[in-house]
Each structure stands twice: as structure tokens, then as C-alpha cells.
Amino acid sequence: MRNTAKITTAVLAAGALTLGLTACGSGKDAASDTSGPLIVAASPVPHAEILTFVKDNLAQKAGLDLEVKEFTDYVTPNTATEDGSVGANFFQTQPYLDDFNKKNGTHIVSVVDVHLEPLGLYSNKVGKAEQLKKGATVAIPNDTVNEGRALQLLAANGLITLKDGVGTAATPADITKNPKDLTFKELEAAQTPRSLEDVDAAVVNGNYAIEADLKPAEDALVLEAAKGNPNSNLLAVKEGQEDDPRVKKLAELLTSPEVKKFIEDKYAGSVLASF
């Protein structure tokens, strides 16, 4: 993407370990220097694509200097936001953010909900979920919230039954009924679409499905319902940066009619505007 810095997970992870969760350097960082560009960490698809649309079509008129940095994992965008390497991030849901803050002692807060990426079950072996054979292997994301979402999706479609009240904290240990004796392969979320050749089915996050040329609205055997779904993807900043005028401008642009139309036209139901 034009004017987008692609950063490898390995390099970013090394940087995060070096910096820890403290502000970097003795000068101004990306979060505190409101006179500079707003640097936003984002997953490549659809987050960076949406931000690039804003950058190329809306930001200049709104007086916003926007820089987009792509990240390929679900950890470094938050550590970079916490340590001030970037001023905001756009890649995660509120349940994931709450869990991340709790486990890592970070102080990141939501600014605005932007869109929903429905989680889906995909397979190269069967055309319907009920066609999964007894003992089939299903890949699921291994991070706390997305694993719980994956299991809730399977439960909602009758493939398993979960303990009451486990919500997005569900793990395979919370399965009370498994009539097909499904075996679960827990993988990093980004790896789930790549596992489709090796497993019978995989539950894949919407952004990773799109990156893998899957069309959630067409290819998923079962898909999360949008109505009442708490898993909208959001713009987030370190606590205390919510009133940064650059952040406020970006929040307005991300929830504008122009962005809603872009999402509808480009993703054709595979990504849904939350505003």
C-alpha cells in the first residue's frame, strides 16, 4: 500500500521486548507529539485498507496528517501503543482489548467502534458443517477471546455444547457435549487459514479470511451473526490520549458516510460497518 510501512512481526516483537511498556527515548513520542502525524498501527486487511482510504480521500481536507503502519500479529500493536511508538491502533475488539489489558498491565482504551469482521468456519474438505465426520480436526485461534468466540460459533450451530455462562472465556475444557468427537487444534489466529489443507475445518477471523482470499459471506460454512454482536473492531489509544485532536478527527472520519460506503462496496458483506 502507498505510504504504508510494512513491519515484520519478528522485528516488532524484538523492539517491544527492548522497549518494554515504557515510553521510548527522552524526546517526544508518537502519542505525545500532537503536532506530528498520527501514526496508527493496523492489521493489513481490512484495517489498513480502511485507514488508507481515509488517508487518500478524507484526511487532507480534514487537516489530519495520517501515517499507517501494518502489523501482522495481535500483540505488537498494543505494546507499541502502550510504549508510545504509535499514537493509536485499529485491529481489535473490546473483549480482546479488555483481556489484553488485564493480562499485560497495559492501559489502552477504546475510542470508537468501526466495523465487524464475522468469525467463520471454513473447510476445503466438506461443503456443510454437518458433513464433518466423526473425529474431524478443527483448527481454532489460541488467544483467549478468539478461541472463546470460535467455540461459541460452533456451539451456536449445534456442533458442540458449552458450559453455561463461559462466554468468550470458553476453552475446549468447557465443552460438555461433543457428538462428533471433534478434535481441536489450537493455533495462532493468523495461522488458521493456512491450516485448511491439514485439518478438516478451521475457524478463521474475518481479517485473516479476507487476506487468504476467502469470502466470509460466501465461503463460510457457518458465520457469526452481526445482530447484537459485541465484537466490533475499534480504534484504540493509550489512556489519556482520547482527547488528542488528531484522534478525534480520525474517529469522525472512520465513522463517516464515505467510509461506510467504502466498506459496503469493497467487502460486500464480509465486513460490516458498526455505525
From TrEMBL:
InterPro entries noted in UniProt: Lipoprotein_NlpA (IPR004872)
Residues with lipidation of kind S-diacylglycerol cysteine: C24
> Pfam families in the record, alphabetically?
Lipoprotein_9 (PF03180)
Cell location: Membrane
Domain of life, per UniProt, equals Bacteria
Q: Which interval of the chain is the signal sequence?
A: 1-23
Per the record, membrane topology reads: Lipid-anchor
Q: Which GO terms describe its cellular component?
A: membrane
What keywords does the record list, in alphabetical order?
A: Lipoprotein, Membrane, Palmitate, Signal
What is the similarity comment for this entry? Belongs to the nlpA lipoprotein family.
List the protein's name. Lipoprotein
Which species is this UniProt entry from? Streptomyces toyocaensis
